Amino acid sequence: MLVLGIESMLPSGKIPSDLLRGLLEGLPGDPSVLVGPGVGLDAAILQGASGGRIVVAADPITFATRRPARYAVQVNANDIAVMGAGPRWFLATLLFPLGTSETDVRATFADLAEACGTLGVSLVGGQSEVTAAVNHTVVAGTMLGELPADGVLNRQVSAGDEAWLIGEIAIEGTAILCREAGPRLTAAGVSADVIAAGTALLDAPGISIVAPARAAAASGAVAMMHDPTEGGVAGALVELAGASSLGIVVDLEAIPVRRETRTVCAALGIDPLGLLASGALLLAVRRGQGDSLSAALTQSRFQGRPIGRFVAGGGVVDATGAPLPLFERDELARFLEQGNQPG
Length: 343
Fold this sequence. Notes:
Number of domains: 2
Number of helices: 11
Helix content: 25-40%
Shape: globular
Low-confidence stretches: none
Number of strands: 14
Structural class: alpha+beta
CATH architecture of the largest domain: Alpha-Beta Complex
Largest sheet: 6 strands, mixed
Strand content: 15-25%
CATH superfamily of the largest domain: PurM-like C-terminal domain
Strand order of the largest sheet: 3-4-5-8-6-7
């Protein structure tokens, strides 16, 4: 973008959708790529030589946090799961800042091994180095999974289909804020009990949506799934609308927000709709199939609910017709960039 002859700088966070869409449109095709790159698409699907299909996803953990390896495994596994596949193999690039100790490296590898083991994933490769290019540990992961030939979600969403949400929003963002910004929250009057409960969200309910995604895909009621991450559920809904070539009318009152999330966000001036949202799962559910999905989720001990409906056109609006808030960058990134660095 040029402003008065000067190119404006992009904010931190995801590349703007319009820019990314234009870049992707210029890429050459390949007949073995069944689902390629696109805005709102979490992973690619490749045709395997033996008739099976390989699902591939890549995601980095670039924000400063104490357990980046664990986050990296889980968010990449989530991207595989929303395509209806099971995560199998993981590659990790680990970039450590100058001043990293051997103890730090061992702790990161231990987290990586534990996270892979929990999901039944094999760590099969990667790269690790200490570099002046980063000022905190960065983990960039690539996850691969397998999908049977008849297992691809058809991704055909129609006007009248429902938008569902499994889980609650901003679980990951809430946990990170409570872990990393405890002193700031305490100074704002948030109780130690709320901070402890928010911190524990990383473990329970956690940010993995692999199991509920598997249950949803098996129900036969779902056309498309999307894993909200950076940009929160608001950004994910916009991406889901774009991927379906439809609009979405959202009932904001139906979106579940935990008490800890409301309290933490209010104390820090953060909108939970735009806060890092791994741990939730968005679904496009075929019209009239909601009961089937609900039964399948209940049988697997998960909860989901409709939060909106797909409509002709584009964009995402609330029940009054007002557009959902747009977040140029995730609310966590905005909080950190304002100088509110975790203590």
